[in-house]
Amino acid sequence: MVATARSPIPTERGLRLDIRGLAHAFELKGERLPVLQRLDLSVAPGEMVALLGPSGCGKSTLLRLVAGLEPLQHGELLADGAPIAGPDPSRVVVFQDPTLYPWRTVWDNVALGLQARGLLRQQRGRVDEALAKVGLGEFAQAYPRQLSGGMAQRVALARALVNDPRLLILDEPLGKLDSLTRIAMQGELIRLWQQQGYSGLLVTHDVEEALLLADRVLVFSDRPARVLAELQVARDYPRHRDDPHLVELRRQALELLGLGKDW
Ligand SMILES: Nc1ncnc2c1ncn2[C@@H]1O[C@H](COP(=O)(O)OP(=O)(O)OP(=O)(O)O)[C@@H](O)[C@H]1O
Ligand SMILES: [Mg+2]
């Protein structure tokens, strides 16, 4: 069967990311630990790219560099052609742990970014909009302890979306959810991405999740991470887990990750 290309999504919002010759190392017990090695990758405006790779290979480090949370050591990191010099609300990260402030309501947690930028007074409506996007409008006045895990993660998403990001950086955002909530949230992530048109960089350990969500999946090697392969997912959304094209790509990805024989 010939795989069909997916239809284009709106891309005006999406940021173009270019990574060239990126290398990064940490100092660990007096030894130099190379983590990224001559990495080249680009994300086109509106594109969703997933990264798969062994634990500890450097995926979160890469995301932190793109978010501007980690100082650049070597290579080029460009957002729409301009060097990334630090954090910016156009590039926000959602981590595995929602890290909500327990003493603040859902609304106040989502408002944080606007508050920090002195925009909250004029733009309160954006908080309500962000909560509506993740379907939590009715829980605006709840406290984090009153939410389920999936709801808390949706609040974390709303907290990112309130900034109107042009690149959404997702580091195992569904990693702590039970499998049913996870499947529902995968659908949510696709819906939001298609609605909002931002670009996306997603790290996940779940091969199937990467193939369901991303236009392209990059498979990383062990540390120091380099790109072993790039899998193009030639399917429109929503995708189906048992689609033979996805099943074949899954087989390839697992083999590249050294898990081919056992699965
Ligand atoms: N601040 C730091 N100082 C020293 N070493 C670090 C630091 N941050 C990360 N490392 C090391 O860099 C390597 C890559 O870490 P990173 O968190 O990027 O991996 P990862 O691919 O995200 O792993 P996982 O899939 O388990 O989340 C690891 O060996 C880790 O010990
Ligand atoms: Mg990580």
TrEMBL record:
<dbReference type="InterPro" id="IPR050166">
    <property type="entry name" value="ABC_transporter_ATP-bind"/>
</dbReference>
<protein>
    <submittedName>
        <fullName>NitT/TauT family transport system ATP-binding protein</fullName>
    </submittedName>
</protein>
<keyword id="KW-1278">Translocase</keyword>
<dbReference type="InterPro" id="IPR027417">
    <property type="entry name" value="P-loop_NTPase"/>
</dbReference>
<dbReference type="Pfam" id="PF00005">
    <property type="entry name" value="ABC_tran"/>
</dbReference>
<comment type="similarity">
    <text>Belongs to the ABC transporter superfamily.</text>
</comment>
<dbReference type="InterPro" id="IPR003439">
    <property type="entry name" value="ABC_transporter-like_ATP-bd"/>
</dbReference>
<dbReference type="InterPro" id="IPR017871">
    <property type="entry name" value="ABC_transporter-like_CS"/>
</dbReference>
<keyword id="KW-0472">Membrane</keyword>
<dbReference type="InterPro" id="IPR003593">
    <property type="entry name" value="AAA+_ATPase"/>
</dbReference>
<keyword id="KW-0813">Transport</keyword>
<keyword id="KW-0547">Nucleotide-binding</keyword>
<dbReference type="GO" id="GO:0016887">
    <property type="term" value="F:ATP hydrolysis activity"/>
</dbReference>
<keyword id="KW-1003">Cell membrane</keyword>
<feature type="domain" description="ABC transporter">
    <location>
        <begin position="17"/>
        <end position="247"/>
    </location>
</feature>
<keyword id="KW-0067">ATP-binding</keyword>
<dbReference type="GO" id="GO:0005524">
    <property type="term" value="F:ATP binding"/>
</dbReference>
